[in-house]
Every structure is written in C-alpha cells, then in structure tokens.
Design brief:
Folate-binding fold; two-stranded antiparallel ribbon; 6 strands; globular; mainly beta; four-stranded antiparallel sheet; binds zinc ion
C-alpha cells in the first residue's frame, strides 16, 4: 500500500505507523463517562471508507490524516494532521 505523504510524496506504508481512527475528543467539561469510554476504547473498524491518523516515522515524522478504503487499501487522500484538530 502506498501512502501519499504531503511532504515526502508516495511512500510504502511500511514507513508509517498506524496511530488510530480519527475520533473527535468529547468536550472535557460536559462529557459523560460513556462518552469518555467510547472516545478512549471503542472503534468502529468499518469496512469501506475510513479516515485514519498515521505517523510517517521513517520519513518526515509528521502525522498524516489518511482517507482510504479499508477493503481495497486504496488511499484517496492524505493531508498533514497539524492543520486540523484531530484529537
Ligand atoms: Zn513524510
């Protein structure tokens, strides 16, 4: 699988480390225990279009938001995570 790093160009996925599905952090002041449990431990693990956070550990060492199809491993988009709130 090739991941198009925005800084380094297309690279083998072995250069990256999967971090997590992108999950919005609940509001700390108002989140219920169930919302925290879901945020910390539950993942959708969907088949099909997913948005994930990867670290380009053997390249630029930047976090990259990757949109891919989990059934075919086709990457449709990749952008730097520092330009958006991921956590
Ligand atoms: Zn890179």
């Amino acid at each position: 699988m090739l991941i198009p790093c925005p800084l380094c160009g297309p690279r083998d996925a072995l250069e990256f480390r999967f971090v997590d599905e992108t999950v919005r952090r609940p509001e700390p002041q108002s989140a219920s225990p169930e919302q925290w449990r879901s945020y910390l431990y539950l993942r959708a693990n969907r088949a099909g279009a997913v948005t994930e956070l990867w670290l380009h550990r053997s390249g630029c060492r930047q976090y990259v938001v990757v949109e891919r199809d989990s059934l075919t491993n086709t990457v449709t988009a990749a952008r730097l995570a520092r330009k958006e709130a991921v956590s």
